Amino acid sequence: MSSQNPAIPTLTESYSGRTSKVPEIGITVVLVLLAALVILPLIIPFFFVFKTRLEFNYNPWALPKAIRWDNFVLAWQGIRLDKGMLNTFQVCLGAIVLTIPMSAMAGYVFARYRSKITEIAFYFILGGFFVPIQMVLIPLVKMTAAIGIANTLPGVFLPMAAFGVSFWTMIYRSFFRDLPGELADAARIDGSGHTGTFFRIMLPLAQPATVLAVILVFIGAWSDYLLSLVMLNNPDLFTMQLRTWQFSGQYGVDHMPRYAAAAIMSAAPTVILYIIGHRWVLRGTLAGALKG
Q1: Residue 177 CB-density burial (10 A; 0-12 exposed, 13-18 middle, 19+ buried)
Q2: Which H or E run includes 242?
Q3: Whether 42 contacts 267, CB under 8 Å
Q4: Helices marked H in 79-206 — which ranges?
Q5: What are the extents of the domains in the chain?
Q6: What superfamily does domain 71-291 belong to in CATH?
Q7: What is the pLDDT of residues 159-195, one digit of tens each?
Q8: How many other β-carbons are positioned within 10 Å of the β-carbon of residue 223?
Q9: Which DSSP string do the residues of 130-154 spell out, in sequence order?
Q10: 156 in Cβ contact with 228 (< 8 Å)
Q11: pLDDT (tens digit, 9 = 90+) per residue, 101-131?
């Protein structure tokens, strides 16, 4: 009787091993391409930013002959990026303050006080998530003009908050639904009211959702271009994105190194914030996926 050596794989095993690697290689290639689409826009400006206009016109994709920081200074002074940064910080702060507390309280109510009325109200609010902002730009401009906040920073971050509340209400509802209800019951037995239970017990437990909301709302408000373009006409109120666009409109492609410097400075806060808080983003996303 002959016995097969277990250390030598059979033909079927080797064939199945090869076929199982083929999908993995394909998935890896797709992920690398998708990552390149995200990373390349962040890398390309660095090919231009340290060059002079002459070096860029001669060979834009060559390495710079020397590291020059003049383009950052000229871009900062040319379109007053300091004012744009201050305006953008105000928009981000207003969007965070108006979006997250309302979403957290609404999500807690919809998660803990479930009835037919709250379910109908939740799906009514959730419907706002499926309304693209492009569809309501004209009514939005008329509304802001009617209430006297047209061409102001509140006219920018108030619509941002209105469009963000529905999504973050859904996220907070998912978190609060999976928190143990015994914690709230124990707090009520100890004499804590609804407000105290929410702020002292339940909201701290939803810290991953809160940090995730702060980071993503800030990034979304900082990167906004369309809403700011439609709502703002005063150049003194322009945000970072509008001032970067203003630079390209004033100077054109002849000043591409300076425009690259402006683009890098415009994107730097969001990139730095994500690098610092990416662990919280992953933690909050995974927790929401597992709880949802």
Answers
A1: middle
A2: helix 240-251
A3: yes
A4: 81-112, 116-126, 137-147, 154-177, 181-189, 194-197, 203-205
A5: 71-291
A6: MetI-like (1.10.3720.10)
A7: 999 999 999 999 999 888 888 877 777 877 777 777 8
A8: 16
A9: GS-GGGGHHHHHHHHHHHT-TTSSH
A10: yes
A11: 999 999 999 998 888 898 899 988 888 888 8
Least confident of 42-56, 152-166, 179-193, 200-214: 179-193
pLDDT for res 283? 65
CB 110 within 8 A of CB 173: yes
Burial 247-281 (b: 16+ CB within 10 A, else e): bbeebeeebbbbbbbbbbbbbebbeebeeebeebb
292 has pLDDT over 50? no
C-alpha 128: how far from its chain's center? 18
Model pTM above 0.85: no
**End-to-end CA gap in the chain:** 57
